[in-house]
Predict the structure.
Amino acid sequence: MNYRLPAEWEEHKSTIICWPHQKEDWPEKFAPIPWVYVEIIKNICDSELVRLFVQSEREIAKVRKHLERAHVDTANVEFIISQTDRGWMRDSTPAFVKKGNDTVAVKFKFNGWAKYSNWKKDKNIPKTLSKVLNVELIDAKQNGKEIVLEGGAIDYNGGGTLLTTEECLMDHATQVRNPGFTKNDYEKAFAAYLGIKKIIWLGKGIAGDDTHGHVDDLCRFVNYDTVVMCREKNSKDENYYHLEENFERLQGETIASGTKLNVIELPLPSPINFEDLRLPASYANFYISNSAVLVPTFNDPNDRTALNILSELFPKRKIVGIHAVDLVWGLGTIHCLTHEEPV
């Protein structure tokens, strides 16, 4: 169908976010979460529209008060009243592809990461957005069945190359997205609906990842032929072996055009544990807006190192650290909460 999936650093028309409302995602830590969202919105809406999902007309006044107290210009915030189960828009929002000069929304099935039951309202997000954005909505199907895929499971360079993990898409025992699917099935589906010519398969994701291996906590494109890849120096850490194995997979790898892939190491923060959980804290979960790169930070010495690495890779954008120690208790951070709409 001659589609192309634009890279995240290409110009956006908007960023799509959902105001936090599901307190169970941050048990006993919900109070600071709206203010983290305020910082995220503040650093995006200076250069593009923010389309903000809210649960009701009544909620708009409350959200406006939060934004205005932090001196956020709400003229660049558009409210969408539509009920959702959760707010992880990276995963429940459709993929926006280009067909010539037109934007098309491709709807993959969202089923709560093949783990949770509260996703019935989230499945309506693509239809709502197609109406608001006035774009065609296409269901991604293979052999007559809907294809299950979350946005955080893939990363892409805008030139036909896509990153993903075997842990997320090829595991047939835990959180199974598409029973019986082979790599060849994914290649056909991604080629048909996203214009992908090459998939780079990594192994496992990072420890603590509730999604079972999303690549956006692990490895991200920062330009057409360059990725940042998380690497753990402590050989006793549970991330060490899997990250080394992934790093080895990328050695000598090429993108769809045949150009050699450049791989830049990105550190991880020291393990963050809360109660009995290892949390998926990763600097790779950054979001690229028109004017900035928003990077989760964790009160860790490696915060500065990660911010410096990304500042060199994005010299024309401001690099903004967003405090995410409370946010990551929801088992996701900035990239998980946002989704770009291309121009």
